[in-house]
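step: validate -> pass
step: tokenize input -> pass
step: predict -> running
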Amino acid sequence: MDDYVLFTFVVLRVARFARVGGRQRYYHTIEFTLLV
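step: predict -> pass
step: emit ->
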């Protein structure tokens, strides 16, 4: 359950970074998520 909540939080955070930061941070966040 905790993993699901964390995943949802990460997805929402990625959505914000995609709008504000641009694609580079977006892809880095995906890589970080896959590593974890």
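step: describe -> The chain has one domain: 2-35.
step: cleanup -> pass
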